[in-house]
Amino acid sequence: MRFGCCTDINHSAIVKEAGFDFLECTVVSLVPDNDGDYEKILNRYKQSSLPVEACNIFLPGNLKIVGNEINHGAVESYVEKALSRVKQIGARTVVFGSGRSRSMPESFSREKGEEQILMFLDMVADYADPLGITIVIEPLNRKESNMINSVPEAVEIAKKVNRDSIQVLADSYHMDEEKEPIEHLFTAKDHLKHIHVADTNRFAPGTGKYPYETFVHCLKQANYDGLVSIECNWKDFETEIFQTRHFLQKLFE
Fold it and tell me: Does residue 108 fall inside a structural domain?
């Protein structure tokens, strides 16, 4: 396995010093409001001390893909530009969380909402497949989205899309919030392509009571050997980043 951290590109040096293998940055940072700023942003990524192997925050919150206010042209234009830039910086995994974008309005048909998500992911695959980018569907807890709240739901969506580039992520924080069985890591093994970790209340791994031994056991049972990214709220980033790397090293040995 390779271990990374979801953080700003400006933290690359300290994350490397702590012993991590890669960064996970945001897709939206690659698509600024002023497109003229992109070259400056790209240079920051090129100068990073660590490779950016994954990207999260795929869609800006105001770009809806579910509901009655979808601008399909704007969505496809954004996806085409965003994924080409993800490719430029060398990342190969994109996390589809984007809770605000994919949440249903009140009284909206769940069946219609799922149909819209399937159409979106099929379109995304048209751009991701030739670029060699994998899109991983992230189940979110119900406070962040009312669509796709468990790993099995994400697997079912991936199966229905049935495209090589559409796979699944499991996030320990969201699973914990939803009281989801950790054993779902094993049952999802054929589609599980990325992992996010955080401890109790989404703080740094090793600072709470999350049952990491069970989590790691299920990952090993699933023969998972991919990327593992910390996605948490830091109390003292410059101290905790070193402690967390040590914790993960011992945990996964």
Answer: yes
Nearest alpha-carbon partner for 206 in 239, 183, 184, 181? 239
Asked if residue 6 is part of any domain, the answer here is yes
Sign of CA dihedral 18, 175, 55, 223: positive
Residues 197-230: tens digit of each pLDDT: 999 999 999 999 999 999 999 999 999 999 999 9
Report the alpha-carbon distance of residue 93 to residue 132 in Å, rounded: 9
Query: Residue 253's pLDDT is what?
Result: 82
Q: For the whole model, what pTM was predicted?
A: 0.97
Q: Is residue 106 part of a domain?
A: yes
As for how many domains the chain has, the answer is 1
pLDDT in tens, 87-98: 999 999 999 999
Domain with 94 in it: what CATH number?
3.20.20.150
Is 18 a member of any domain? Answer: yes
